[in-house]
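Hi all, posting the design record for the shared folder.

TITLE: backbone redesign
STEP: 1 of 1
STRUCTURE INPUT:
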């Protein structure tokens, strides 16, 4: 998983526990023992998601949320709060937090919240990456999406293999769709005249999968 997570908590044990849970689950993490250290790390290399404890000395989690959202509005933030301080968590969400977890929390609840918020990050990136009229128009056609998914599944295919897989007898129609995909830089052909996804096509597949996951969730 490429997305970066910053864990901010003055409680060394809790911070380490959260880090261990997320690293074991395959996430990339960094740690900060307080808001001041966190802000320096954010300015140097902005994370995709911040997990911050509400109660910290000097600058508390609420103030950190406000500061981060002003300078980096796209960063996702999960606040950790004591069960008795739910009102604080609700207030934090009004200030920009995207989610909160009550202590003591379960490992699965933490991982679920992190995955959900990182999915939002990937979804937003995909919307930006696909915000091109020609590309969106091209993949709005179901046959072209089928072709992209077949090439993603099989790696590379010849023209007749694609035609048979689609169940389209009119070869001219298939050629038309392949030409459109090629003109938009989503597929290419190798020396053996086999069709395969280009880097742009792989990018579109990634975005389509994220969008599909978003819609079904």
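Okay, here is what came back for every position:
SEQUENCE:
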């Amino acid at each position: 998983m490429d997305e970066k997570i910053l864990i901010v908590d003055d409680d060394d044990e809790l911070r380490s526990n959260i880090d261990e849970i997320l690293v074991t689950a395959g996430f990339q993490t960094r740690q900060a023992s307080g808001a001041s250290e966190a802000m320096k790390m954010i300015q140097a290399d902005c994370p995709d998601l911040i997990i911050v404890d509400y109660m910290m000395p000097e600058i508390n989690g609420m103030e950190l949320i406000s500061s981060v959202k002003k300078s980096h509005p796209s960063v996702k933030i999960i606040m950790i709060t004591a069960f008795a301080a739910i009102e604080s968590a609700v207030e934090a969400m009004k200030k920009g937090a995207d989610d909160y977890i009550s202590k003591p929390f379960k490992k699965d609840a933490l991982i679920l919240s992190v995955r959900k918020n990182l999915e939002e990050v990937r979804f937003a990136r995909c919307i930006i990456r696909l915000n091109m009229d020609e590309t969106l128009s091209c993949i709005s056609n179901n046959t072209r999406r089928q072709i992209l998914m077949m090439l993603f599944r099989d790696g590379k295919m010849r023209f007749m293999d694609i035609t048979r897989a689609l169940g389209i007898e009119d070869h001219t129609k298939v050629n038309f769709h392949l030409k459109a995909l090629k003109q938009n830089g989503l597929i290419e052909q190798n020396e053996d005249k086999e069709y395969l996804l280009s880097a742009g096509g792989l990018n579109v597949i990634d975005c389509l999968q994220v969008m599909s996951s978003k819609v079904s969730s």
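COMMENT: The mean pLDDT is 87.
Let me know if anyone wants the other runs.
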